[in-house]
Structures
1.
Amino acid sequence: MELPADPAPLASWTFHGHLRQYQAAVLQRVTAGPGDALHIVAPPGSGKTLLGLLLSVRAGGRAVVLVPNTVIRTQWAQAATELAGDPTAVSEDPACLAEVTVLTYQALSVLDTTDPLSELARSDWVAELVAGGRDETAAASWLSTLAEQNPTAYRSGIGRRSRGVRRRLSRIDPSALAQALHPNARALAQAIVDHGVTTIVLDECHHLLDHWALVVSHLAGLIRACGREPLLIGLTATLPSPDDAAEYENYTGLLGEVDYEVPTPAVVREGNLAPYRDFGWIVAPTPDEVAFLAEQDRRLAELVEHELADPEGLAWLTGVLQPPSSAAGPIDPMQQLGAAFAEDLALADAASRMLRRLAPQHPLVPLLPTEDATRPPSTDEALRLLARHALDRVLPDPGLAERWAATRRTLADFGQTLSDGGLRRARSPFDSILAQSEAKDDAVADILRLELGQSCGERVRAVVVTDFTQHGNRRGGDPSTAGALRCFDRVIADADLVALRPVLVTGQHLRINHADAEVLLPLLERETGQVATTT
């Protein structure tokens, strides 16, 4: 393979501005050459783009910059063009590589959707069922039954898990990654190598989790296979969480430990980052919200008992405690009970407690364990039973598809996700109520009032950031106003805060207090050049 003639085209690039002190410190203290990996952490606004480019210029070789989105891609291309002094030296087009080419991570990491991963997906499904309490043989048998009796549900489950397998190929078989990439992604990686790239800059490198890190490793390996040693430069403001050990290992295996961390005070000192302090303001739900949560808890208990208390539900509980026996002759209920506890202790214990509670006169009850017999099934035990009942009796029957869907919707209202892999906790009503609590709006007013009461209160300028303009959750509490609109109404209703002349700005709303119209409308018209109308 013939490489481009100039091995160091970036060596002529020039920076004509003035470096900040901490940028100069990074360039002075960090040294790296072919085969090295630089890992630099710096706060937002500290000029990581310029640092990455200057480190690339110092290395001299052609570079590819990988970024998480197209907006950042454009920013890098503009900064690189200023250093190059030649727009043709910089490209954002994967079909037209330049001295510095800026691409998104996605351009290199598209997977081939035709790659069959059904066996791995089935193994994942079996593992989910085992985690839910079944043994491996029973889980595999249940899947075979589902595939025979409800093939649509089976294919859906396999397809969903196949997509998950694709997202984490690195945990299953890293050697399969190159083959799993889309042909266009493989061709792009090879084109980058053929172009003579020796520097790979990874912006926002904390995104290098899961298969993205392996894709970059694949690209670096291709460069090494051509007899060149790549330089990797990782830049981030936020290190990834080490909670997921496999993903974190991929990340650190690529970039290693941090080589240099720009201290936040240094960025503040030079005026590139505003000084700040973090505070927490703790609030409690309102009395109405507490009452709603208590009612949800009661309804959940009622739902679980209702599903298992009818004749079909009781028959299923009995079947859990009296599993089929292959032995010939009379069946001993005590032996069957022992087999049930031996096969799945947690499920059998939960079933025995539920049966004792729902049908105390049932013939099996006298045979059940008496230790701690008065304790009713816990919420977790009841939910485990409900999920297993739905999986065993409802999902396999295509005629009960509506019941399956209704059960899933109802459980979702209570913060539980029922899938063909079992039951998992999602966002509960408790979480939603806390996220949308009216007490948070009161806290905004309390904080602003506190700030106004300080000696410099006349200088207070504040920004209130909310996660929604109007919350979309319609379950429980006040369903229509959680978010920026409700918070704004709370602020302008406070006699102490109206002097701030609050303004609400969202993608679709511009609101001011009616009493401020004479002052603010002329200012808005002057700034926007439009005639303001009131509603």
Note: The chain is about 50% helix and 10% strand.
2.
Amino acid sequence: MKIKGSFILLLCLIHSIGVLAKVQLSPLFTDNMVLQRESEVPFWGKTAPGKPVKLITSWNNKEYVVRASIDSTWKVKIQTPQAGGPYSIVISDGDKVTLNNVLIGDVWICSGQSNMEMSVGSSGKVANYQQELAEAGYPQIRLLSVEKALSLVPLDDFKAKNRGWQVCSGKTLDDFSAVAYFFGRNIYQNQHIPVGLINTSWGGTVAETWTSEEALQTMPDFLELIKDLKKMPASKSEQEALYQERLVEWKEKIDVKDAGYAGNQATWANTNLNEKDWGKMQVPGFFQKQGLEGFNGIVWFRKTITIPETWEGKELTLNLGAIDDNDYTYFNGVEIGHTEGWMTPRIYKIPAGMVKKGKAVITVRVIDTGGDGGFAGGAGNLYFQVAGATQQSLAGEWSYRVGMDLKDIPSPPQSIAGNPNFPSLLFNAMLNPLIPFTIKGAIWYQGEANTGRAYQYNDLLPLMITDWRNHWGQEFPFYIVQLANFTSLQTKPIESTWAELREAQLKTALHLNNTGLAVTIDIGEADDIHPKNKQDVGIRLALAARANTYGEKISYSGPVYDSYIIDGHTIKISFKHTDGGLKTLNSEELKGFTIAGVNHEFHWANAEIKGNEVWVSCPEVSFPVAVRYAWADNPLCSLYNGAGLPASPFRTDDWQGITWGRK
């Protein structure tokens, strides 16, 4: 047995020598890279076991020698000088590799979901993107993008777009993160040092997938999910089979609990149903914004339409736009379509034989599994028609009734195959391979995917930041983009999941050391979760970094709530960061403030700027106890400081919000 084992080990070593005949490097180490200035930078790779590797750095002609371990890996730390370059690095294990055009400067990790991933040109097309690309010749800025990948275990290697670092130009910038670029450009223009930007982001992802397993195990909310992941089969086919099995079980449970079902029949889709107990709701729109605040579950919608006589016997097209999250759609009680996925347009065909003149009933069973739910598209995407005929709009008032609250059953299963939204998957595949490459700091634009669990984000975001720092072994600066305004403009004082998540981001920036916040509450778009003004996002991030990391004496934050005093019928709010005084833009009315008494009911408030304070009152609230500002998904707001930076949304109360207790 010993002879056989030794022979197998020898074959493995011979195979390793054959495969690793030439030194192999991470995509972090390529031509055009940026290394962190004035640091001991880890440098690593692979070659044959036991083989010596020699590195020579051209800035000081110093030679480093290290020997590969039995698993073929090697690592050495090299000393970097002040910012400058270009330089070269020679790596040799007998065969020589030379890395050219190397700069020494500051390296920033740029991560998050789609608003960080959104490119300057290509699919993103930010504001004025043609000019931005035409003027993007910044050879001192270098770009590296991590390819999307998932893993159940931490990985050492990753794939990079374009196989490594690229010199910033209109061509290389076209498909690179806009926020990262505008941040890096502002840093370069003011610090005059090379800047390396590493974009590792994935649209639609939750924060827990960017956090390590060992960190998440300290949060009870994720323990069961992590245990389940540990039991997950390795093959994608087995993962999908397990998911389908669990999905069938879950759907059976909701059919039993759903009041619109009886004996596996969609009774609320019947054409002769009496709707006297049904409410009215505007479609399109989210039902959380129309009387069902904080609700997740099943809502049934019904609308009676009239089929023209000339349409009888012709195939009918029913367009419902996007529905958040899933739907079952019925025509005169017959199921005609079912779609999963909140961004997928619903276009259903009704066979000619079912199309009769006169009244017809469309019923849509909407299943919302978290966050906002309902008809998510525009009014122009809601219509029915036959070929060649004018579209008949379906936008407007529909009847609705709640079928089931999701609290009554366990959360729906999710497929892990190709799905990044499980704990640690992206940390393992897209972050761990970058560690311990020395960096200056990190910028982060994420949170949209966690709004349904915003209160939990109070713990999750600082945990994730601390987790990254622990793995890197350095307490680097971390700058956060606060969520921009989105969805319909606020018309009344309401509760808001987005406001609660912005509050969690603000608290993290205020209380976790070496962090900062870029407020973007004034530059979002009501109809686009990916606002095109990424220039100001990058600049506001850079202002925070230039002030706090680079020590520039500049204004970097808008007004931040500090304290309040109740004075009779008025609440007087004090602020920090009132540089140049409090103001509104273009002398417009100060708006966005609401006030509540002991009954916790908020009313629009009168607000006046008094020096560095705002005095808030309302005739309907004789004894005020709480004030909120810009507290909505897309709030009214107009408070700035003299530097032209917007105030962060805030509240003076600590009353339980609509995401309290959600996991």
Note: The chain has a mean pLDDT of 93.
